[in-house]
Design goal:
Elements lengths: L19 E3 L12 H8 L7 E3 L8 H8 L4 E9 L8 E7 L2 H16 L1 H8 L13 E5 L5 H6 L3 E6 L13 E3 L1 E5 L2 H4 L2 H10 L8 E2 L11 H13 L18 H16 L5 H16 L3 H11 L5 E3 L6 H5 L29 E5 L3 H12 L4 E9 L2 H11 L4 H17 L9 H11 L3 E13 L10 E10 L2 E8 L3 H6 L4 E7 H15 L15 H9 L11 H10 L4 H10 L5 H17 L10 H6 L10 H12 L3 H10 L7 H15 L4 H12 L8 H20 L1 H11 L6 H10 L3 E3 L11 E2 L4 E3 L10 H13 L5 H8 L3 H9 L12 H12 L9 H7 L18 H12 L31 E16 L8 E9 L4 E6 L1 H7 L9 E10 L2 E11 L3
Length: 1007
C-alpha cells in the first residue's frame, strides 16, 4: 500500500510515565499512523498496556492485536458528547474494563451508528433500549456537564487529565491521567494542518491530541492520577477469548442432515457410483463432520438452494459440495484435490464462496437476513485507502478547488507521465500535489466488501460494532440499509468471524437469460446433459481466442494466450485461467515454449523439472507452477513444509505488501538447502512462487470459472445474436458496448438502433439474426425512465413526439438526445432526421404541463393534445451528418461500422490482412481503438523507466492486437486519449502464429 507516512522511523521512541491511549489512522484524518507503524516506532519500549482510542470505531482492533499483542490491547473509543444544547462538545474516552464491558461497547457503538438521533435523545433523558454491562465500561470525562450523560450510560466515571491540564484538587470524581496520542513526532505533525482542513471540509469531528515525542517535555501529572490510570489499565482484563464464530446450525443433527442430502445428490450427479467415488465421498464426509463444519456447509447449501450459482474458491474441489449443488465442476473427473478445501491439519474454516447472478444478489442477502435474523447477519467492511488520484481530489477540495479543475490536472499529469508532455501547473497546484502525497495510503472511509457476509450464533453486535451501509436492500417490503461490521476481511478472520462470500456475477445472469430466450424460441437446453466443453465448434472458437464476451477469457491477454496455445480443451483452459497472473509474464512465455516443444517432439524434457518432485506435480503445465496447490505441494516436497506451514504460505500469497511472503522465503530456502537442493534451483522455484503474490487461484476455482467460460463460449458459438445482446444488456463485459455490436455484425447479425416504439431498457435479440439496442445505451436515459416509457407504451400508443415528451416528462436535452440517436424516427416514419430534430428542438422549448392538469396539457399544444405541429419542408440531411450525430451520442452506429464516416488512404489494408501477413512485413491499417493497457517497459541497462501499451483495435473486417513500444507510445500515444479513428503503420510480428502489429507511426483521422 503506498504511503507517505514512513513505515520505519529511525528516531528512538521516548519513555513516559503517562498511561497511554492511542488514536490510529482509523480515526480518519486525526490519527497519523497504523497500529504496525506505532509498534515499529516504539520498538522494545512498547508499553505493557495501551488503550485503543479511535473515534467511534474498533476498526483498528484486529491490526492492533496482531501488531501489539493481544495482552497489550485495551479496547476503547472516543466519542464526542454535547451538553444537550450543542454548545459544549468535547471528547469522552470510553474504556472496556472487562469482557462484559467489551460486549457493551460493541452494542452501544452499534446503536450510536445505526440510530444516532435516538441515541442522542436517550443520552439526555429520552427513551431507549435497555443496555447491560455498561458498568464494566469506564468513561473519562473533561467537563462537568458530561457527567450526567455518562451516568445515563451507567459507566464508571473518572476525570480525564491530559498533558497540559492543571492538577486540580477539587474535582467531583477521581482524576485519571491518560495521555491521548495521535502521532509520533514532528514529521507526522507536518501533515496536521492539511488533515484538519480536510476533516473540516468533510464535516468530520476533529480534536488535536498529543504527539508521543511531546510527552517528555510536558509536566508530569500527579502521582495519584498516574496511579489511577495505571490501575485502570491493569484492571482492564484481556479481550474475550478468540474463537471461531461459526454460522448457527438450524438443524438438530447437522451431520446426519448433511450426509442424507449429499448422498441424495451423489445419486443425482452420477449414473454409476464406482468404489473410488464412494470412498472419496465417505472420506470427505468424515473429515467435514470431524472438523465440525457440517452446519457451515449446510448453511451455504441453503443460501445457494434453487438459484443459478458458480461455486468458487477451494469449495469446488469437494465432492460433497458438488453433490449439494453448490458447484458445477465434477471434482472426481477433473482431479481436484479435496485437501485444498479441508484437511485434518487445517485449523481455520474452509473457503466456501458462491457467485450468484448479479441482479439476484440483493434478494439472496435479504433471504439470509430473513432466515438468520438481522441480529446475526452483517456484511464485511472494506477499508478504502486514499490512492494517488483520490488523495489529490481530497487535498484539492481542502484548498477550495473544484473537481473539474482537479480532473484537468490529473489529465495533465497522466499525459506528462505517459507521453512526456510538459507539465506547467499554476499555483497553488504544486503545493496541492505535495500535500496530496502526504495523504496517500491513509484510510479515508469504510465501504462494503464485494460479497463478504458473516452469520453468527451470538448476536453480531455483541462481537463487533455494526453500522449502516449506504447500500440498501428490500426486506419484508421495507427498504433497509445493509448492516456492516467495523472490520475488513482480514480483521474479521483475525477476530474469529467466518466470512462467506456471496458475490454477484454478471455472466451468470447472461447464461440464465440466454437459456430463457432460447426456451421462448422453442429451444430447450437440458442443463443436466449440457456439456459445452465437449462441443467441437466451441472448442475451435476457444482455441482461436475468438471469445469476446465470454466470461474470464475475453481480455486481450487471455485471448492471445488461448490463440498462441491453440488449445480449446477444458483442462488447458483451467491452466490458462490460473497462469494468466500479472506477475507471471515470464512464466507464461516459458509455458508456451514448452507446450509447443512438447507438440513437436511428443515428450517432456528433463531440464523443465530442476527438482525430481516437480515432474510428478507439474507435468500438465510442463514444470510451471499454476495453482495455489502447486505452491503448497512444492513447498512440502522441496522444503519439508508440513500441511499447516504450506497452508500458511498459501494464505501469505494474498498479502504481498505485508512482508509475510518474505519471511516464508527464508524458511523455504533453509528447508530446501537442508535437503540438498541447489541454490540455483531454489531461486528458480521461489521466483515462480513469488509470481503468485497478490493474485492467484486454486485449481478448483479455475475449473469453476472455466466451466462458466465454456457455457458462454457455447452460447456465442451457436447463438451469437442472443448471447452478445445479453452481454450488452447486463453490462458485464470487458469492453464498451460498441465492441460487442461490431463483433456481432462481423458474425452476420443485424444491428437495430434504440427506438421508443420497440426498445426496452436492456438490449435484446430480435429473432436469431438481429440485436435491438436497448435504451440503456442512450445517454441520460435511466432505468426508471425506461420503465415509465414501457408502461406508457403499453397503456396507449404515442400520438406524437410531444405526447411522448409530456407523458415521460422529458426535458429539452433528453428529447434532443433521443432525436439525434434516431430513437424517435419510428414515431414519424415519413419524416427525415432533420425534420425529427427540428420537431424535438421546437417542442423542447415548451414548458411541460402540470402532471395532474389535462386542461393545461390541451391548452399548451397548438392542436389536439399530444399531436405534433406541422413541420416545415426542410432540406434532407446527408447520411454522413446523421450518422456522425448518432455516433457522437451512442458511441456506435447501428447501420454500419463508424469507420465508414472517414476516408481511409488507398494504401491502407483491412485488419483481416494481418492474419495472413508475413512476420517482418509492413502494414498500414485504418482502425477504431477498442481498449488499451499501459504497462511498464523493461528499461535498457542504466536507462530510465519507460511505459508502453498494448492496444486492441478493429475495423469492419476484424479485431487485431497492436503493441506500442516506448518510443512510439511516447510520440503518438496521446492520440489514444481521443476517440478518433487512427491510421496505424507498423511491422508485423508473429509469435506461435499469432500476429501482432508493432506500431511505428500513428495519425488521427477526423470525421
Amino acid at each position: 500500500m503506498p504511503s507517505a507516512t514512513k513505515a520505519i522511523i529511525d528516531i528512538a521512541a521516548p519513555t513516559t510515565v503517562w498511561p497511554v491511549a492511542v488514536r490510529t489512522w482509523y480515526s480518519t484524518l486525526e490519527g497519523a499512523c497504523s497500529p504496525e507503524q506505532w509498534r515499529e516506532y516504539w520498538g522494545s519500549a512498547l508499553p505493557p498496556r495501551m488503550v485503543l482510542a479511535d473515534r467511534a470505531t474498533l476498526a483498528a482492533l484486529p491490526e492492533a492485536i496482531t501488531a501489539w499483542g493481544r495482552e497489550r490491547v485495551v479496547p476503547g473509543c472516543t466519542l464526542r458528547l454535547s451538553d444537550g444544547n450543542g454548545e459544549q462538545d468535547d471528547d469522552v474516552l470510553f474504556i472496556a474494563s472487562g469482557p462484559r464491558g467489551y460486549v457493551a461497547l460493541c452494542q452501544w457503538l452499534s446503536w450510536y451508528h445505526e440510530y444516532p438521533r435516538q441515541w442522542a435523545s436517550w443520552l439526555h433523558g429520552g427513551r431507549g433500549p435497555e443496555l447491560s454491562g455498561l458498568s464494566d465500561v469506564v468513561a473519562l470525562v473533561r467537563r462537568q456537564c458530561h457527567i450526567p450523560a455518562v451516568t445515563r450510560l451507567q459507566c464508571a466515571t473518572r476525570w480525564w487529565l491530559q498533558p497540559g491540564d492543571s492538577h486540580a484538587t477539587d474535582l467531583p470524581i477521581p482524576a485519571c491521567a491518560m495521555a491521548l496520542v495521535d502521532h509520533r513526532h514532528g514529521e507526522d505533525r507536518e501533515s496536521l494542518a492539511l488533515r484538519q482542513a480536510v476533516a473540516q471540509r468533510e464535516g468530520r469531528a476533529w480534536a488535536q491530541a498529543c504527539g508521543l515525542d511531546q510527552l517528555a517535555s510536558v509536566e508530569s501529572p500527579c502521582s495519584a492520577s498516574v496511579a489511577e490510570g495505571q490501575a485502570l489499565l491493569r484492571s482492564a482484563s484481556i479481550l474475550p477469548d478468540l474463537h471461531w464464530h461459526m454460522p448457527p446450525s438450524l438443524w438438530d443433527d447437522a451431520p446426519a442432515v448433511l450426509y442424507h442430502r449429499a448422498a441424495a445428490g451423489l445419486q443425482r450427479r452420477y449414473a454409476t457410483i464406482s468404489p473410488a467415488l464412494r470412498q472419496r465421498f465417505e472420506h470427505e464426509m468424515a473429515v467435514i463432520i470431524r472438523k465440525g463444519f457440517a452446519g457451515y456447509v449446510l448453511t451455504v447449501a441453503d443460501v445457494a438452494d434453487g438459484r443459478r450459482t458458480c461455486g468458487r474458491g477451494s469449495g469446488a474441489s469437494s465432492l460433497v459440495v458438488y453433490c449439494l449443488g453448490i458447484t458445477d465442476v465434477d471434482p472426481q473427473r477433473y482431479a481436484l484435490v479435496f485437501e485444498r478445501f479441508l484437511n485434518n491439519a487445517r485449523t481455520d474454516p474452509p473457503d466456501l464462496d458462491v457467485d450468484f447472478p448479479w441482479d439476484e444478489r440483493d434478494a439472496v442477502l435479504a433471504q439470509v437476513l430473513q432466515r438468520y435474523g438481522r441480529d446475526h447477519v452483517a456484511m464485511v467492511a472494506n477499508h478504502c485507502h486514499l490512492r494517488r488520484g483520490s488523495a489529490l481530489r481530497v487535498a484539492a477540495r481542502a484548498y477550495g478547488r473544484r473537481d473539474g479543475e482537479t480532473s484537468a490536472v490529473r489529465t495533465a499529469l497522466r499525459q506528462q507521465q505517459r507521453y512526456g508532455k510538459p507539465l506547467n501547473l499554476p499555483e497553488p497546484w504544486p503545493g496541492i500535489l505535495a500535500a496530496a502525497h502526504t495523504l496517500e495510503g491513509r484510510p479515508h472511509h469504510s465501504g462494503l466488501h464485494c460479497g463478504g457476509i458473516v452469520i453468527t450464533p451470538d448476536p453480531i453486535r455483541s462481537i463487533v460494532p455494526v453500522h449502516p451501509a449506504g447500500k440498501r436492500i428490500t426486506d419484508h417490503g421495507e427498504t433497509i440499509p445493509l448492516p456492516v461490521i467495523d472490520w475488513d476481511k482480514d480483521g474479521a478472520e483475525t477476530m474469529g468471524l467466518v466470512k462467506i462470500d456471496l458475490l454477484g456475477n454478471r455472466s451468470l445472469a447472461v447464461v440464465r437469460d440466454c437459456l430463457h430466450d432460447l426456451r421462448n424460441a422453442g429451444i430447450t437446453i437440458d442443463e443436466a446433459r449440457w456439456h459445452p466443453a465437449d462441443d467441437l465448434h466451441t472448442q475451435t472458437m476457444v482455441a482461436s481466442g475468438d471469445t469476446i464476451g465470454c466470461f474470464y477469457i475475453e481480455s486481450p491477454a487471455m485471448r492471445q494466450l488461448q490463440a498462441k496455445a491453440g488449445s480449446g480443451a477444458f483442462d488447458a483452459l483451467v491452466v490458462h485461467s490460473s497462469i494468466i497472473r500479472p506477475a507471471a509474464n515470464h512464466w507464461i512465455a516459458t509455458y508456451l515454449q514448452r507446450l509447443h516443444d512438447f507438440r513437436r517432439h511428443g515428450q517432456h524434457r528433463q531440464e523443465w523439472y530442476p527438482h525430481p518432485s516437480l515432474e510428478n506435480l507439474l507435468s500438465e503445465s510442463f514444470g510451471i507452477l499454476s495453482y495455489q496447490e502447486d505452491v503448497m505441494q512444492v513447498a512440502q516436497a522441496m522444503a519439508g513444509f508440513n500441511e499447516r506451514q504450506a497452508n500458511a504460505l498459501r494464505k501469505s500469497l494474498g498479502h504481498w505488501g505485508s512482508g509475510r511472503l518474505q519471511g516464508f522465503a527464508e524458511i523455504f530456502r533453509a528447508g530446501a538447502q537442508a535437503r540438498g537442493v541447489a541454490a540455483q534451483v531454489i531461486d528458480q522455484v521461489w521466483d515462480m512462487i513469488s509470481s503468485f503474490a497478490g493474485y492467484s487461484f486454486c485449481k478448483a476455482h479455475s475449473a469453476s470459472y472455466a466451466m462458466l467460460s465454456f457455457q458462454c463460449a457455447w452460447l456465442k458459438a451457436h447463438f451469437p445474436a442472443i448471447f452478445l445482446a445479453r452481454v450488452i444488456a447486463h453490462q458485464g463485459g470487458f469492453y464498451h458496448h460498441a465492441a460487442y455490436l461490431e463483433d456481432a455484425r462481423r458474425r452476420g447479425v443485424r444491428i437495430l438502433g434504440p427506438c421508443v416504439q420497440c426498445s426496452n431498457w436492456r438490449t435484446a435479440a430480435e429473432g436469431m439474426a438481429a440485436i435491438r439496442c436497448g435504451l440503456q445505451i442512450l445517454p441520460g436515459c435511466s432505468p426508471a425512465l425506461a420503465r415509465r416509457l414501457q408502461d406508457e407504451r403499453r397503456r396507449s400508443p404515442w400520438l406524437g413526439i410531444d405526447d411522448l415528451r409530456c407523458r415521460l416528462r422529458l426535458d429539452a436535452g433528453q428529447l434532443d438526445t433521443f432525436a439525434r440517436a434516431g430513437a424517435l424516427d419510428a414515431i414519424h416514419p415519413h419524416y427525415h432526421r432533420g425534420q425529427i430534430l427540428w420537431l424535438a428542438r421546437h417542442l423542447g422549448l415548451r414548458p411541460l404541463p402540470a402532471r395532474d392538469d389535462p386542461q393545461q396539457l390541451r391548452l399548451l399544444n397548438d392542436h389536439t393534445a399530444g399531436y405534433d405541429p406541422p413541420v416545415p419542408d426542410l432540406p434532407h440531411p446527408t447520411t454522413h451528418s446523421c450518422e456522425q450525430a448518432q455516433w457522437q451520442v451512442l458511441g456506435c452506429l447501428p447501420s454500419r461500422h463508424p469507420l465508414h464516416l472517414v476516408s481511409a488512404p488507398a494504401s491502407s489494408q483491412p485488419c483481416r490482412a494481418l492474419t495472413t501477413a508475413i512476420s517482418g512485413s509492413r502494414l498500414q491499417v485504418c482502425v477504431q481503438v477498442v481498449t488499451r493497457k499501459q504497462v511498464a517497459a523493461h528499461p535498457k541497462r542504466g536507462g530510465p523507466n519507460q511505459v508502453m501499451a498494448f492496444v486492441t483495435v478493429e475495423d469492419p473486417t476484424a479485431l487485431i492486437e497492436t503493441v506500442w513500444f516506448p518510443q512510439a507510445y511516447h510520440r503518438y500515444g496521446i492520440l489514444l486519449e481521443a476517440s478518433h479513428p487512427l491510421i496505424l503503420e507498423g511491422r508485423v510480428h508473429r509469435e506461435y502464429d499469432f500476429p501482432v502489429l508493432e506500431v511505428t507511426y500513428a495519425q488521427a483521422l477526423l470525421t
